[in-house]
Amino acid sequence: MKWRDYGALEVKRDDAVGNAIRAASFEYERNLAKLGNPVDRDEWFMPPMQVNAYANPTMNEIVFPAAILQPPFFDPHADPAVNYGAIGAVIGHEISHHFDDQGRKYDPEGRLTDWWKPKDVQRFKVYTDQLVAQYAQYEPLPGTKVNGELTLGENIAGLLVAYDAYQLSLGGKPAPVLEGFSGDQRFFLGHAQVWRSKYREEALRQQLVVDSHTAGHFRPNVSRNIDARYQAFDVKPGQKLFLPPEQRVKIW
Ligand SMILES: [Zn+2]
Questions:
Q1: Residue 101 in domain
Q2: Which of 8, 52, 98, 108 satisfies CB 3.0 to 4.6 Å to 103 for a cystine?
């Protein structure tokens, strides 16, 4: 553990904008000072108290700060199905970033080398075009839809990998029924609970335009593409999030 020295950063109690500007330029200078020096492979790009996670292809690493390893993402005392649907899907998501439209551009040492064959690119695009169209139908605000291209890389990943991991963890035994819910139901509920979100209209509008992450309350919709969800909740044609089997997009 190395503590970062903020001694040179001036923070004033009555100057929020000035603090933000000074903090930004302090950080800029800190990054500039790295030039010409060896790469610090121990550096984390999020602080421990940030509820988030990331994949960093130049380091070939996935990182989960302490703050995300608590409920609703992870609870050591919770039922495994819930944890697999929650932090499991986040872990699967970050792993798959190393293999997706971004991660494919970096080799195992983090060098910028595209390791996909043209055939892989073509097949990937067939599936991702379907997912782009699927997300572009969501309309979080009247007249403003999700940008399927912008959010593609974030929409692809994670849940199906976590579902497979959960099934493997059962070792062929049936999952227990707890409080009336099957293991698969608890898995999908655990995933949906993580993404409960609330936005002011302005914040949501900004996110829809500039952010590669789909707004939180639409993220559980990715489960529409997983057959097991239909069995778990007996989802029928005509229900709001039903997709016919041929329209379910399976990439990983
Ligand atoms: Zn992501």
A1: yes
A2: 98
Going from the Cα of 52 to the center of ligand 1, the distance in angstroms, rounded, reads: 10
236 C-alpha to center of ligand 1: Å? 30
- Contacts (Cβ under 8 Å, ≥6 apart) of 54: 45, 46, 62, 63, 94
Q: Which amino acid is at 236?
A: K
Residue 93 has a CB neighbour count (10 Å cut-off) of 22
- Taking the centre of ligand 1 as the mean of its atom positions, its distance from the CA of residue 40, in whole angstroms, is 23
Q: How far is the CA of 154 from the centre of ligand 1 (A)?
A: 5
* Rounded distance from Cα 30 to ligand 1 centre (Å): 26
Contact 224, 235 (CB under 8 A): no
> Domain total for the chain?
2
Q: Rounded to the nearest 10 degrees, what angle do helices 159-169 and 183-194 cross at?
A: 140
Give per-residue pLDDT as tens, 51-107.
999 999 999 999 999 999 999 999 999 999 999 999 999 999 999 999 888 889 999
In the beta sheet, which residues pair with residue 135? none
- Among 229, 42, 243, which residue's Cα sits nearest to residue 130? 243
How much distance in Å is there from the Cα of 8 to the middle of ligand 1? 33
